[in-house]
Protein: Glycosyl hydrolase family 4 C-terminal domain-containing protein
Amino acid sequence: IYYRERQLQHMKEEEKCRGEVCLEIEEELLRLYQQPELIEKPAILDKRGGHLYSEVAVSLVSAIYNNKNEEHIVNVKNNGTLDFMANDDVVEICCIVNKNGAIPLPFKNLDNDHIKGMMRVVKAYEKHTVKAGINGDYNEALNALLIHPLVGDFRKAKDALDDLLEAHKKFLPQFFNK
Structure:
């Protein structure tokens, strides 16, 4: 968000976008997983990213099952944890996790209006995106993109939305069956 132009320039200079790279890695992994003699984790798996997710997931399940009272960063309903966000907002925050689930740790006195503002803006983007998806509302989807701090341009937002809807038409019939 803070280095948008530099990041966009870097993306333009790349031969392939992140999605294309991930797709190639997934295809290679599926090919490798068909080999019965494969007994070790393929090295290419580390290139995809998220290779430590399984360890985090198992640790989280263990904390719940074994009632460990461990700290984990998870997504929970805000319920007043962050006083500047709505109670029904989902927030990713440090929680104590045990057999009762995830209990958010108190978070007091965030005295940074910039961070608060960015969090509210991104949450507004998420809410508009969900509403657009549920209702198949083109204008709501466009508004979501315009709210997002990484977009910042009406023409680019509209073109991206049009391209996205066309490319994923079979998965988004609510935008077309009116």
Remarks:
- Residues 112-178 form one domain.
- The mean pLDDT is 92.
- The CA atoms of residues 133 and 141 lie 7 Å apart.
